[in-house]
Each structure stands twice: as C-alpha cells, then as structure tokens.
Predict the structure.
Amino acid sequence: MEKKGLLYEGKAKKLYLTEDENLVISEFKDDLTAFNGEKKSSEEGKGALNNKISTELFKLLEQNGIPTHFVKMLDDNHMLHKKVDVILIEVIVRNIATGSLTRNLGIEDGTVLPFTLVEFDYKNDELGDPKLNDQHALILGLVDFQDELDKLRRMARQVNDILKPYFAEKGLNLVDFKLEFGKDKDGNIILVDEISPDNCRFWDMKSGEKMDKDRFRQGLGGLTVAYEQVLNRILGK
Ligand code: C5P
C-alpha cells in the first residue's frame, strides 16, 4: 500500500490517502509539541518508537475485544489504518492525579484517585481544548446522541481495564492517558489515533521516574531513552 495525497498534517503525524478509499496511512513524525503548540522540538527516532508502541497496544486491545482503526504497521514510521470520521472529543482517563487535574482542582500530585476518572476535552486547538460536559458535547453536535457519549466512556474504561494491569506487570503505573475515537464507514465507533508515551503518562513503579512526554514538557531530557524503555518492556526485553 502506497501513500497518495496528503490528507491532513497534525502536530505529531501526517495522514495520507491510499488507493483504497477506506484506508489511510499515518506517518509518525519526530516532532514534539506541548502547551498547545507553544513549546516545540524534535527528537530523532521518537516517531518510530510511537509507531511501534501503538502497534503493540492496538494489537493487544483488538485481542481483548476493543475495535480499533489499526490494520498493520508498514515500516518504522508508517501505520496503515481505517479511515474514519474523527469525533472531536479527547477522552481523558485518569488513575492518579497529576497534570491539569492537579492544576485545576488542587488535588495533590500523585494522589491515587478513589475511582478511575473519565473526562472529555473539546479537540479544538484555537480554543485550547477546553473541558466539556455531556450537554456541551451535544449542543456542539460532536456526537448525535447521549448513548454515544456513554459508549465513549464505557470503551475508555475498558481500555483502562486492559492497559492498567498490563503495564503494572511490566513495572509501570499507567497514570493517565488520552484516547480519540471515530466512526468507521458503517458508523461504528472505534478507537483511533495512537497510544504512546506522547499521550499516556507512565511512572516507573519502583523509582517513580517519568517515562513519557512529561520529560519534554518539564525539560527533564532523556525522552527517547524513556520511550525505548517503554517499548522494550512491552516487548518483554
Ligand atoms: O494535561 P493533562 O493532565 O490534562 O493530560 C492528561 C493526559 O492526556 C496525559 O496523559 C496527556 O499526555 C494526555 N493529553 C494528550 N493530548 C492533549 C491533552 C492531554 O495526549 N491534548
């Protein structure tokens, strides 16, 4: 399968059309952005690591009954996947308080939450991805029915129920993560985008070390070394 025209360029990926109208190719870029694009950089090898990590995690989720857009990894930086209508809601799942939850609500960093929190953000760079409640999402027409919002929450919790114990076995706390969903050609809601240390937070269970994009956000350095460690733990190396 070969790349045809560029469909869309995002902050971390480029999307290309293919000869099959139902399939697209994502190119994982080495670019890094944070704080809604205000902080920018690039780390050689980051895109390939995210492609490989996402590939393994999409396969794991598919095996456990979560429908995803994943078809196959084509090479180091390219993934073939289904074309969808993206739902403009970022579904955030949190097990431990940090980041914007700590900033917005004053919950102490590192607090284990009494239950898994699922939040919605509006995927809109111009507005800075504001928080959404169900009524906002319906008024904006981001989905057609309340049932679909319930489904997004249900699927996000299922993903957490699979990934949290999976990473715990590998010595990593899955602190929080962001998921995106879309509708395939038959209108089914499926998991899309990527699942990588760019959109998940992982803390080493023993040392507490951050093994994700917070290394860039907080200027800690060692980003690709950390991402590589996440991949190696997934691969059991
Ligand atoms: O910044 P915040 O604490 O809300 O992030 C929660 C989780 O969602 C983090 O794992 C972060 O990497 C992810 N996220 C993301 N893209 C965004 C916002 C958050 O991947 N636009």
Summary: Residues 90, 92, 99-101, 129, 176-178, 199-201, 213 surround cytidine-5'-monophosphate (CB under 6 Å).
